[in-house]
Design brief:
By secondary structure, the chain is an alpha/beta fold. It has one domain: Aldolase class I (TIM Barrel), CATH 3.20.20.70. It has eleven helices and 16 strands. It has an eight-stranded parallel sheet. It has a four-stranded antiparallel sheet with strand order 5-6-14-11, with no helix packed on it. A two-stranded antiparallel ribbon has the order 1-2. The longest helix has 17 residues.
Length: 308
């Protein structure tokens, strides 16, 4: 039985509960996505997909550091054409019961739009990866330019009636300036944040960087204060909803992101430590918090603003 019958609709996305799967975690196949759905996720986001297959960086691509992980996967993915065939085959046997959002990336507007049109028949919306910190041509390489962000969002919105979410990076001088341009491009929501960095880890005995790419994005509980600040600043700057992500490991973390301005939250790194039970655990904890304090979900969104 679902913990929550139905959560509020956010930018047209009717999540089953407020805890979504973040991009990059168990989202590369129909089977892995279905497993996450069955374990209680309120909505699903695929791994970031491009127009062509991408092998990504060679290993090592992940290293655990204090209170988090450094990763440099390199946007490895099978490409949208291969991915959609796997999805169609699975969905024909057992459709998803929660919204499925496709994370897509590109070096410019044309590649984003190409990926979008391929995937549109089988997904419920799109999350534009404008924020990967360790790719030379994608992610932050395009997402740090406010004008380009607006154009990419506008062009994607011109090609679909489904929700378009702009996922932004904290690794810019003022994330709210990027958010306002995404809103001007008609984004339906903002997702914040992606990994922080890039950072680096060195194996002291060999005196060599651990990651093959040398640099990687930082995730996990250590980045939560940055996520809270970014969400807070974006909430002050835009009118569209925010999906919060970054450092959520327990229900209280999710509530903190909501009080900063997020409507829904995504989790990723915590799944490595707590397994798929994290979805039901955090969702149930949010419900307990609301009940114990006699408030609704809408009451706490952005409630940290205008206080002191």
């Amino acid at each position: 039985m679902d913990l929550l019958v139905r959560w509020e609709s956010v930018a047209g996305i009717k999540a089953r509960n407020p805890v979504m799967l973040a991009a990059g975690i168990l989202g590369e196949t129909y089977g892995s996505l279905k497993r996450v759905e069955k374990e209680g996720a309120g909505a699903l986001v695929t791994k970031s997909l491009g127009t062509k297959p991408n092998p990504g960086y060679r290993g090592p691509i992940l290293v655990e550091v204090e209170s988090g992980f450094l990763n440099a996967v390199g946007l490895a993915n099978p490409g949208v054409e291969c991915f959609i065939e796997d999805l169609r085959d699975g969905i024909s046997k057992e459709p998803f019961r929660v919204p499925l959002i496709a994370s897509i990336y590109g070096a410019g507007s044309r590649e984003f739009c190409t990926a979008l049109k391929v995937l549109e028949p089988v997904v419920d919306g799109f999350e534009l990866n404008l924020s990967c910190p360790h790719s030379k041509h994608y992610g932050l390489a395009v997402g740090s330019d406010p004008r380009l962000v607006r154009k990419i969002v506008e062009d994607c919105k011109d090609r679909t009636n489904k929700p378009v979410i702009a996922k932004l990076s904290p690794n810019v001088p003022r994330i709210e300036d990027i958010a306002t341009q995404a809103e001007a491009g008609r984004a339906d929501a903002i997702c914040a944040i992606n990994s922080v960095g890039p950072g680096m880890a060195i194996e002291i005995e060999s005196r060599r960087p651990v990651l093959s790419n040398l640099r990687g994005g930082l995730t996990g509980p250590c980045i939560k204060p940055i996520a809270v600040r970014c969400i807070y600043d974006i909430y002050e700057a835009v009118e569209i909803p925010i999906i919060g992500v970054g450092g959520v490991a327990k229900p209280e973390d999710a509530v903190e992101l909501m009080e900063a301005g997020a409507t829904l939250v995504q989790i990723g790194t915590v799944v490595y430590h707590r397994g798929l039970g994290a979805f039901r655990g955090i969702s149930a904890g949010i419900e307990r918090f609301l009940k114990d304090h006699g408030v609704s979900h809408k009451d706490i969104i952005g409630s940290a603003h205008g206080g002191a």
